[in-house]
Specification:
Length: about 375
């Protein structure tokens, strides 16, 4: 309504409301390095395509003459109340997209009351983002360092900064073969490396001979092995439980047996995700495995979903197939490219409005009513 009313006065939205045009529009605002870092996927892009194809195979079957004038989109996930079943996915190094980076995202998220998941690879420190986020709901995503002292320091800072839920990403213990970045030899390094997590971490810095500002190479040489390779196993999860007193969510689960292991290990939730097709090229479309995973563990732990969500209809499909909420990835980064905070707000508000309208027009009064019966598979 707001957009149409402003249209009567000759005003159009700041940039496209069309999810199919958003990426192209962001492309015009970013250099090729940052653009392809965000837009690209692993390998030949098969998994990125599979994510979209999985959504396209499911169609909503609208119902008529049901009073859906007033809709309830709100939900609670792991104790976090949210106005809609949508969170902002962890996206690292956002300052390559806009100088305000994660600060802009945090402000937009807080204003819309949408929880933000802050990445370990953030270009701003945990404390800076927490301050920008104000009263907003804050979840923290961990790339699990090999050094326990650094890990504990990061967790401690996140907890003290008001981050409630810990999202542990399991699928990125090394970066995949990403041709767009390789061909450009593009390294997404960051506004003054010294402020980034964990370069800004006091324990990490103590391990450097000099400060990272003085010696970027030594910081990078220390960072890479600390976050690559993995001696992690299911047996190491109690370490995180010991050092985090809030809910723990494992991100990057695709196999139903791993989902069961997560539930058996006593974590509180999982994100069914293939990292937006950025890690294992040729991996299954994330939505393709959501139903079996939700059926297997949905009554024991919270099942969240990301990878390929672009529209309100996509949110409806993921929820109908068993997700409790979805994480939005690239689209909000494209919003960030359009002028920072207002750009993120425009994209996220647009998605929520699209969700609200599509839900109502399909005959549902609330997200709680969504079941597989709302969909048909083709
Ligand atoms: C990511 N993603 C990600 N995930 C994570 O756990 N930590 C991180 O630091 C990042 N960084 C990151 C950077 C960029 C540029 C992108 C596009 C993605 C993955 C992200 O959280 C999410 O899983 C996907 O983006 C979801 O897929 P869509 O919505 O982008 O298709």
């Amino acid at each position: 309504n707001e957009i149409y009313l402003q249209g009567l006065g000759g005003q159009v939205p700041p940039f496209t409301t069309n999810p199919n045009e958003l990426e192209e529009s962001a492309r015009g605002r970013l250099g090729p390095g940052p653009f392809w870092y965000v837009a690209g996927g692993a390998g030949a892009g098969a998994t990125m395509r599979a994510n979209r194809e999985a959504f396209d195979r499911w169609r909503i079957v609208p119902r008529m003459l049901r009073d859906a004038t007033i809709r309830h989109l709100g939900t609670t996930v792991l104790g976090t109340e949210m106005p809609a079943p949508v969170l902002l996915a962890p996206i690292g190094v956002q300052s390559i997209v806009h100088p305000d980076g994660e600060l802009a995202t945090a402000r937009a998220a807080a204003e819309l009351d949408v929880p933000m998941v802050l990445s370990t690879a953030s270009s701003y420190s945990i404390e800076e983002v927490a301050e920008a986020s104000g009263d907003g709901a804050r979840w923290f995503q961990l790339y699990w360092p090999n050094d326990d002292e650094v890990c504990m320091s990061i967790l401690d800072r996140a907890r003290k900064s008001g981050f409630r839920v810990l999202v542990v990403t399991l699928d990125t213990w090394t970066l995949a073969w990403r041709p767009h970045d390789l061909d450009q030899a593009y390294v997404p390094f960051i506004r003054g490396v010294g402020t980034a997590i964990p370069f800004s971490d006091p324990v990490f810095r103590a391990g450097l001979e000099r400060s990272p500002e003085e010696d970027l190479t030594s910081a990078v040489l220390r960072w890479v092995p600390m976050f690559t390779g993995t001696d992690k196993s299911w047996e190491r999860l109690p370490f995180l439980r010991e050092h985090w007193d809030g809910p723990i969510v494992l991100k990057g689960i695709l196999h139903v047996d791993d989902a069961r292991k997560a539930a058996d290990a006593g974590v509180d939730g999982i994100v069914v995700s293939n990292h937006g097709g950025r890690q294992v090229d040729g991996a299954v479309g994330a939505l393709d495995v959501l139903p079996e995973i939700a059926a297997a563990v949905g009554d024991r732990i919270e099942v969240l979903f990301d990878s390929g969500v672009r529209t309100g209809a996509d949110v409806i499909k993921a929820l109908a197939l068993g997700a409790r909420a979805v994480l939005l990835g690239r689209p909000y980064a494209y919003g960030l490219a359009h002028g920072g905070e207002p750009g993120v707000r425009h994209v996220v508000r647009g998605l929520l409005a699209d969700l609200d309208l599509t839900l109502g027009l399909a005959g549902f009064r609330g997200v709680a009513e969504l079941t597989p019966d709302a969909l048909r598979r083709f």
